[in-house]
Design brief:
CATH topology of chain B: Four Helix Bundle (Hemerythrin (Met), subunit A)
Number of helices of chain A: 3
CATH class of chain B: Mainly Alpha
Order of helices and strands of chain B: EHHHH
Shape of chain B: elongated
Number of strands of chain A: 1
Order of helices and strands of chain A: EHHH
Radius of gyration of chain A: 17 Å
Largest sheet of chain B: none
Strand content of chain B: under 5%
Radius of gyration of chain B: 18 Å
Distance between the termini of chain B: 21 Å
Oligomer: heterodimer
Helix content of chain A: over 70%
Largest interface: A-B, 51 and 48 residues
Number of helices of chain B: 4
Chain lengths: ~150, ~150
């Protein structure tokens, strides 16, 4: 069994009013949507978006990471302090993955900002590491290994 | 005070599929919106409109299907298929209405691409598609709020 990110209501269709945990989870999830969205927009850039709207899509990808990265970190730590333990293994793994995704994502954004069509050998390693880190982060958040 | 409850391990994969599909879908809608705005602002717009159309057709529609299949999967595991909880109702309403909007947007983008390819200026089609795309993103934000907070 794992702690919930989606509360169940198997026998009870009615649930109590929205709690602080629910609001924090919502804001954390908004951040997660933006952070994963950043990786998706970088994917759009990689498959040809850079040729037709490179500057605009790069702006979107960078801002999504700025907002999403910050919100996932702030509200994730808040949730951890409120409802879990900040030194739980899965939370420490998530923080490490977040740092990897942030480091590669920010550098990837800078590379695309320098040139709409940067050399593949510069962007592919950064893009690959960012996508793997973001997907691993999502898996860790849902599976919460060791919780 | 902890509000966190528990969820069985065998729900995790279904939840991952649902959430990942939703995240990719919303990001592709945002990308399509940016591409459509760029297409509205430029004179040489054919390639941009084509890319926006393909983003919706090849990207957003499959992502929707992944999200929707994941939703049914997790709902069946939680035995929520026939639930009358408001957050479930919001989720189904946004998902089903969202599919209709997504189909309309994709068709409009396709028509805009065809008109642009023939040398026309499909501004009205592009404006409608952009507006519907932004509307759908807002609707999914409401659905996310309902999914996360599960209001009474």
């Amino acid at each position: 069994m794992r702690r919930l990110t989606t509360r169940t209501s198997g026998n009870s269709p009615r649930l109590p009013a929205v709690s602080r945990y629910d609001w924090l989870l919502f804001l954390h999830l908004i951040g997660a949507f933006a952070a994963v969205g950043s990786a998706v927009v970088f994917s759009v850039l990689m498959v040809g978006g850079a040729r037709v709207a490179g500057a605009e899509l790069t702006f979107l990808a960078r801002r999504l990471w700025d907002v999403g990265g910050l919100m996932t970190l702030v509200f994730g730590i808040w949730l951890a302090l409120d409802d879990y333990s900040i030194v739980d293994g899965w939370i420490l793994i998530a923080l490490a993955l977040w740092a990897i995704a942030a480091g590669t994502g920010i550098r990837l954004g800078l590379v695309f900002a320098e040139s709409n069509e940067p050399p593949a050998e510069r962007v592919r390693p950064l893009y690959g590491v960012m996508v793997v880190a973001v997907i691993a982060l999502l898996i860790v958040m849902i599976y919460k290994p060791g919780a | 005070m902890s509000f966190a409850a528990v969820r069985p391990d065998d729900w995790n994969l279904a939840l991952l599929v649902h959430v990942l599909g939703a995240m990719v879908l919303v990001a592709l809608l945002a990308s399509a919106a940016v591409l459509l705005v760029v297409a509205l602002r430029t004179e040489d717009r054919t390639a941009t409109v084509r890319f926006a159309f393909r983003t919706l057709l090849i990207g957003a529609v499959p992502a929707y299907l992944v999200m929707r299949v994941g939703a049914e999967w997790i709902a069946s595991k939680e035995h929520l298929e026939d639930s009358d909880a408001s957050w479930i109702g919001i989720g189904y309403s946004v998902a089903d209405g969202g599919l209709l909007l997504l189909i309309v947007m994709t068709v409009l983008a396709g028509l805009a691409y065809r008109r642009a390819r023939r040398g026309g200026t499909p501004r009205t089609l592009l404006r409608w598609t952009t507006g519907l795309t932004l509307l759908l993103i807002v609707a999914y934000a409401v659905a996310l709020w309902a999914m996360a907070t599960k209001p009474a």
